[in-house]
Structure formats: structure tokens, C-alpha cells
Amino acid sequence: MINALITWSLKNRIIVLLFAGAIAAYGIYAVKETPVDAIPDLSENQVIIFTEWMGRGPQIIEDQITYPLVSNLQGIPKVKTIRANSMFGMSFVFVIFDDDVDIYWARTRVLERLNYAQRLLPENVTPTLGPDGTGLGHIYWYTLDAPGHDLGELRALQDWYIRFALQTVDGVSEVASFGGFQRQYQVIVDPLKLNYYGIPLMDVADRIKANNSDVGGRKFEQSDMGYIVRGLGYIKDIHEIEDIPLKTVNSTPIRIKDVATVQMGGDLRLGIVEENGEGEKVGGIVVMRHGENAKDVIELVKAKIIDVEKGLPEGITFKAAYDRSTLIDETIATLKEAVIEEIVIVCIVLFLFLLHARSALVVIVTIPMSVLIAFILMKWFGITSNIMSLSGVALAVGDLVDAGIVMVENAMRSISDDLEPAA
Predict the structure, then answer these.
(1) DSSP label at 314?
(2) Could you tell me if 133 and 288 are in contact, meaning their C-beta atoms sit under 8 angstroms apart?
(3) What's CA 58's distance to the chain center, in Å?
(4) In 311-356, where does DSSP find H-type helix?
(5) By the 8 A CB rule, do 73 and 51 touch?
(6) Which among 142, 202, 285, 295 is most buried, taking Cβ atoms within 10 Å?
(7) Which uninterrupted H or E stretch holds 372?
């Protein structure tokens, strides 16, 4: 059969060349379309459920949130296992599916069960799904280089401007903020004064909540003009909180400032983020969506950062703390270098030993063609171009070169023996 195939190929060279050209063109297309990453993604095919109930201990979180969620998530199709972790104020549930399950189908099934399990949880406790990323989704870390700026202002800038801008980039699942202070209004109540005026603590919280809202009125018409009546009541500064009335004693209003101290402070922190011993930093982590091309997403993020930087206050710039594209570029460069070196060495070896340029060309052509065919198969089977797969291609090229040299040398020797006149 092999002899027949060789004979047919020699008789139909144009068809063989056209077929090889088609493979080369499709291989180049596969090289461009195959997702590129630094390392293979071996993480579990999982959906993360995060629930927050601040102020509660791990045992309460376990009994009232984690256990009801895990119990009701049992029975979802194609689930491998379910793991959970309860800690102070937070619950994490990891639903791990089979490797061949589509991640978005899995998220839909989990969301259906959460709608049912919501009624079993405490009031005002809402579980949420984690980002549709993977364990290797952290592709880009950045910090804000802003000498002399307040950490609270930088964190507010990160949360309300930078994060939303970067989340619009195609392929980005989430931008997680870290560092700094999350600014908040803090009301420090004096219990002795509350007891003196007979004001329950919950009344203070209810009054603040009731006085922090806008209300709608109706349309008022006068002189052929229409006016929309609204009540603007959102809190804008500390003094508005201090002047909120709690009750009246002998025709004298008792305000928040009479029983408490109002200040601007930061939320409770469990740690800090420091860079190279230069002090605390504020920044973000760009998480890539499942199945995206890491190199392309990083390039889009960098282009977006340039646009976002134009709208930052003077003196604030981005500083890359981790950029996976550097490792990706070095991995690709290593493969290119290996292939080029092998082609050059093969040319030299074949020419020196065979003294025949066309024979050397036969082996040289097989190297890039084999690499392109490998990329075609990688695209078909959904394998990303990473340091493991590309290293395998480079090693396979070495074996291919050895086999090609042996076959060409054997063919040349056989042809030479046939051409020699009989003694």
C-alpha cells in the first residue's frame, strides 16, 4: 500500500503540491487561532458559590449557609464532587463537574438550584456565583503608582472607575481590587447617651437608613410648564448624618451628633498589600474568561489601560506587577529558535554527508509542515499553545529530523547502488 501511495504521488505531483499548500494554509490559520498561554490549564472544571454574612462565626456560617447550600446542590447532573469552606463572615462552595462539561451549562444548572435554595438561607443573605474563569485566569496584575495620594482615594478610584473600564475588555471575566481602604461613613455610638435618652440602638440604624434615599413625587403643571417634584435625600457628607433627628425630648430634637460621633474611615481589613518594601499599594487583578486566548486578552487590556490612564488624576500611573504575556512570548520564541536551529543543522549535515541539495530540501520541508499539522490537530482537540505543548512539538521535531536524515541517506544509497554498473 505504501509503495502504491508513493507511486501515485510521483505521478501526480501537482495534486500533491496543491494538497500540501492547502495543509500549509490551514496550518497557518490554526497557528493564529489556537489560544496561546504560558502554562497548561489543569484546574478543575468548577463553579464557585460565594456567600457573605458579615459578623457571624464559622460555625454559624457552616450551619445556616454552607450546609443548606451543599445539601440542595446534590443531584446536579455530571457533578464529580462538591467541596465547601466556611470562615468568618464568608462561605465558599465549589461544585466540580466532569471535564467534558461546558462551563456555562454548568453555571446554569447551579443557578437553577440556587433559586430554590435561597428560601432556606437567612434573611437578606444572597449567594452569588464566582467569575467564569479558571484557576489560571489571573493573567495581569497592576498597581497604581501615585506618590502622595491617599490610599482611600486610590481604592475608590480603582473600584468606581478603573475596574469598570477594564471589565469592558473582550475576554475579561472580572477585575478584582486589592489594597487600600474601602471608605465608609462610621457612626460610633455612645451607649451611655443612648441609655440616657432612652433610644434603642436599632432606631439609630433605622433612622440613618430611612434618611438615605430619594423619593419620587408627581408632575406639577403651571403656566403651560410641567415640573417633576422629587425629594432628594441621599447622604452626601458627614454633617447630613449628624443632623438626622432620632426623637424629641421636651420639644428639643435629639440628633445623631448628640449620641454618637460620625467620621469617615476604612472598612475592616484582614491584611495589606505591599510592593518591594515601598509601602502599601492599591491595584487590581485581571481575570480571564474561560477558554479565551490569554495573549490576545492581555494585549487588549494593555491597550485599554492606555486609554484609562488619560482620565486619571495627575501623578497617577499604572505599573505592571505581573504580566503573563512575557512568559508567553519567551515560550514562543524558544520554539521558533529550536525549529530554525534544527533546520540549519539538518541542512549542514545533509549537505556535508550527501553533497546533494535536493535531498536536504526534502527533510527541511517536512519540519515546518509537521509543525503546522501539529497545530491543526491542537486546534481540533482544543489544546492551547503553552510551554508544555510547544515543548512537545520541539522535541518531536528533533525525532522527525533524525528519521528524515536516516530515510534520505538510505534512499540516496539505494539509488546510488542501482545506478552503479554491474561488475
Answers:
(1) T
(2) yes
(3) 28
(4) 324-354
(5) no
(6) 142
(7) helix 357-380
Query: Could you tell me the pTM of the whole model?
Result: 0.76
Q: Is 134 helix (H, G, I), strand (E, B) or coil?
A: coil
The angle at the Cα of 320, spanning 305 to 160, to the nearest 5 degrees, equals 50
Q: Residue 255: which residues within 8 A CB-CB, separation 6 or more?
A: 242, 243, 244, 245, 246
Strand partners, 82: 95
Instruction: List the alpha helices (DSSP H) in 78-131.
Output: 103-117
Sign of CA dihedral 163, 167, 169, 173: positive
Neighbours of 225 (CB within 10 A): 7
CA distance 130 to 331: 31
Bridge partner residues of 51 (DSSP): 91
Q: Indicate the residue type of 228.
A: I
Whole-angstrom Cα distance, residue 350 to residue 361? 9
Nearest to 287 by CA among 314, 253, 322: 322
Could you count the other beta carbons within 10 Å of the beta carbon of residue 127?
19
Q: Which three cell numbers stand for residue 224?
A: 403651560
Whether residue 84 contacts residue 92, with contact meaning beta carbons closer than 8 Å, is answered with yes
Whole-angstrom CA distances from 230 to 216, 275, 401 are 5, 48, 80
Q: What angle do CA 273, 315, 266 make, to 5 degrees?
A: 40
